[in-house]
Amino acid sequence: MRRRGPGPVAIGAGRGAAYDPLVVERSRHVDFEACFNFRDLGGYETLDGRHVRWHALYRSDTLHRLTPADAEEFDALGLRTVIDLRSHTELDDFGRLAVAGAHEWHHVPMLDDVKLALRGDAAAPEREAPPEELAPGEGYVRIVQQFGDALARVLDVLSRDDALPAVFHCTSGKDRTGIVAAVVLELLGVPDEVIAADYVLTTRARERSSAWIEANEPDFAAFLATIPPERRVVSEETILGFLAGVRAEHGGIRELVDSIGVTDAQVAALRERLLDA
Known about the structure:
α4 (138-146) packs across α10. The protein is an alpha/beta fold. The chain is globular and about 45 Å long. It has a five-stranded mixed sheet with strand order 1-2-5-3-4, with helices on one face. Helices cover 44% and strands 6% of the residues. It has one domain (21-274): Protein-Tyrosine Phosphatase, Chain A (Alpha-Beta Complex). The protein has twelve helices and five strands.
């Protein structure tokens, strides 16, 4: 197994605390041959000094590419739940996780008209207006407003008694996965700057992922080449803008999830199961 360290990373507590994302990067990525952005959300310190449990919740890029060696690595994680955030068209184009196991697979589409092959009217997230017309993170706010039912279902699944360990993923592990990670971490009390640092760890995956896609999925590589580079940037400003936008429009993440039907009991269950004592 190529696993991370067993204990919390010393990242400091509270907004403005010193934070070294490189330490986190080395400790939390799970290395696969054909999955490049799979990482543990454990170890992050909350504003009240608790820590997110290791080996309980993971975020990832697409899992349909796993090799036989990857399947063994994946199985060793002991996952009980896999949440696939990709659209129906993405699922049709590329298929789902093919690893057999005891986990339950949940398809919870977010941005359900996304196409990732060069067929017809392919569109990228934040497509409602040109990027220059949207403040950083505004597209993510629109996504949670339009697909609130999907976000509520994800939180419902993760709050269930037997859900953990779990992983949620989209295609690159950046946008839809980044939104869910930010919502969950904020509900757990993780500071904004730590949420942002976790978000930008996606950049670690880019070089290996791009090389693999060029060699193995040329149609998808051609699609990615049509997306303006600025639309693929992974910046702290995006996720910080998302959090700020939710607070401006809804009062906060807690108020947002309340508005889409997530209960106090579900939030309490998430906190109980994902935070140390």
